[in-house]
Structure formats: structure tokens, C-alpha cells
Amino acid sequence: MTQHIVIAPDSFKGTATAAEVAEAIADGWRTLRPDDLLQSLPMADGGEGTLDAFAAAVPGARRHQITVTGPVGDPVDAEWLELPDGSAVVELAQTSGLTLLDPLQPFAAHTVGFGEAIEAALDHGVRRLLLAIGGSSSTDGGAGLLTALGARLVDVDGGPVATGNAGLATIRDIDTAGLRALPPDGAVILSDVTNPLLGDRGAAAVFGPQKGATTVDVAVLDANLARFASRAAEAFGRDHAERAVVEPGAGAAGGAGYGLLLWGATATSGARGVGEAIALPEAAAAASIVITGEGRFDDQTADGKVASWVAGLAADRTMLVAGAIQAPTEGIFLAAASLTELAGGVEAAMAEPLVHLRAAGAALATQYRP
């Protein structure tokens, strides 16, 4: 009997895109069950690869090539994605991402390019923005993106504030008169990060070290963000700005989440936002089995990661493929396959991930009993 199998994995970071993962799992499944109907819906959580996941899952999606200001000023070739419903997907990792810098520059890196990409989508006339903000290189609180969208940050001498976190130390005023309006149907932030902007769990303390900051640097980065927040309270309204500081996700992408919240965007789980946009809940409800996956399944997976969110859609009908499984899967997944176990080790699994993903797909098919 033909079964409907939905395959909705995240990317395996550094080894395979979500679309490649889904295709390899499907190839493996077909070797055992060639008559099943396989539907690939590659997923993402708001980080690198989110735009590609939408492009693979949404028929009629159209890429728009652009050149923007990179995280320390060099031009960067990027793109935004137009969806048939009039939405646009803009991915921060492409414009202001960590992988664009070598060496890392925690005080100089900024989000101007991300704002320029958003502006390009607005100029095209999109009705809604889906803003994927994982993988940031900066800790500028979103000041750069707001500047690109028309806000003016003025320093103590009356001139423009320098880009990056370092410039935040000199802010005197923020002029929002020229700030562009949200598109008609608003803007949604896609992120799996729930940290606030400031403090021990804030953007600088938790993510600054990943961006090249020392322990001493973290304290300065946080103080500069606090100064930015104090000026934002005057410019955007104290109640609105103070709520944004502590809202879960304000600290995402070095505070880019905060800048977008100031602008009026709303935050959601990256996995949920992507999944709902590509109609995964509806597909999962109609499926016989849903297969999800990620590079590493561990105790942090439950914190908004793709695999846990997908499992919640079809709790008794979900299977897992992971590069490594480091947490119990019983009671969560119907079956699970680890590339590390199939390959005989981590290095072997990473050397030929698609080979072992196909093996994982076949292994799950052998365990399936309709």
C-alpha cells in the first residue's frame, strides 16, 4: 500500500543543505519502498540556509540578486527571495554573517547590509517580510539595519554615528523621521534564540565570544548596547523600547532582533515561522510518516530546534535522522538513525554525509510497519 512520507529536515551544518539532506533520505527510502509518495519540505530555524529552504519548498519562489555593504564595509553579493504570496525572505547570514569575516571584528561588524537587503525587498513592493537572523557577525543591536532603513544615529558632535558596536558608545540622539514603514502585512523575525538584549543572558555575554570578543570586550559591548537602548527609549517611545529590550529574541543576532522589534517586527520561533510558511503542519497532518533531521540531536534540540518542532506536529508518526544522537529519542520519535553509527565514526560520517544519509533513509524504511 502506498504511503505518504513527508521529509522535513534541517541542514546538517557544514556538510549538507536541508534540500540535499531531504533528497538523500528520500533516495534511501525509495530503495526499500519505491511505491511510496515522498514529499520533501526542507526546513530551517532562521539561521544560514533559511532562504534556500524556502526556495526548495515553495513552488514559484523567485531569487533576486543584490549587492550590499558587508559586515565591515566590503561589498557582498547576496539575494532575497520573493514568494508567490507577496512575501519576501531576507537572510542575515548572507549579508552580515559570521562566515563573511576573517578575522572576526566584534566592535566593527554591523548589520547595514541586512538593512539594505530589506530595503531592496521593500522597494520591490513586497507585502510581508520573513527575516531570518541567525549567523550574525555583529553586536550592533540592529543599529546598522535601522540606519539602512532611514533612521539617523547622531553622535555627541552632531555627526553620524560610526557603524558597529563601537559607534554605539557615541550616540546622542536617534532621528526616526526618515525610517521606512513596515510593509502592509508586517515583518516576522525568524530565530531560535530567546535571549534578551542585555545582561548575563544578553547578546554580548552569550554570543560575543563566538564573534571574537574577549571577556573584557563583552563588558564593553554590553555597555554600548545599553547606551543604544537608552537612546532608543527616547526615539521610539519608552514603553515600546523597554519591552523590546527584554522580549525573548531581542538578543538574537547580536541584538539585530532588538533593532527589528523597535521597527515594529514581531518575533516567532524560526522553525515555527518557516514551517508554517511552507505549510508543513498541513502536510504533516496528511502524512503517514514525517521524517525530520539535524546535525546533532541533543538536550538543546527541545529549545525551538527544527527536529523538536516537527516532532510536535506528528508525535506518533515522526522519525529522526541525525549526524549524532546524544539524547534519548524514545517517546519522541517512532524510529531514529544516526549517521555516526551507520558510518562507524564522526569523521567517516562527515566525509561522506550524503552516502550515509541515504543509508539512514533505507534504515528507517526497514523499520516502518504501516
Can you give me a brief rundown of this structure?
The protein is α/β, with parallel strands linked by helices and 370 residues long.
Question: Which tags fit this structure?
Answer:
Rossmann fold, 2 domains, 370 residues, glycerate kinase activity, single chain, alpha/beta, Glycerate kinase, Glycerate kinase, domain 2, six-stranded mixed β-sheet, 16 helices, 20% strand, five-stranded parallel β-sheet, Glyc_kinase_flavodox-like_fold, elongated
Q: List segments where confidence is low: pLDDT < 50 over at least 5 consecutive residues.
A: none
The total count of helices amounts to 16
Determine the N-to-C terminus distance: 8 Å
Number of strand elements: 13
Range of strand content: 15-25%
* Class per helix and strand makeup: alpha/beta
CATH class of the largest domain: Alpha Beta
Mean pLDDT: 96
- Following the backbone from N to C, one meets helices and strands in this order, namely EHEHEEEHHEHEHEEHHHHEHHEHEEHHH
Largest sheet: 6 strands, mixed
Structure overview:
This protein has helices at 18-32, 50-57, 92-96, 112-124, 143-148, 165-168, 203-207, 215-236, 238-246, 252-263, 270-277, 280-286, 306-313, 339-343, 346-351, 353-367; strands spanning 4-7, 37-40, 62-69, 75-82, 87-91, 128-132, 152-155, 171-175, 187-191, 266-269, 289-297, 318-325, 335-338. The longest helix is centred in the middle third of the chain and has 22 residues, at 215-236. It has two domains: 4-43 and 279-367, Rossmann fold (3-Layer(aba) Sandwich); 50-271, Glycerate kinase, domain 2, CATH 3.90.1510. The protein has 370 residues and is α/β, with parallel strands linked by helices. The model has no long low-confidence stretch (mean pLDDT 96). β3 and β4 (75-82) form a beta hairpin. The protein contains 16 helices and 13 strands. The chain is elongated and about 75 Å long. α1 packs across α16 (353-367) and α8 runs antiparallel to α9. Strands 3-4-5-6-9-10 form a six-stranded mixed β-sheet, sandwiched between helices. Helix content is 40%, strand content 20%.
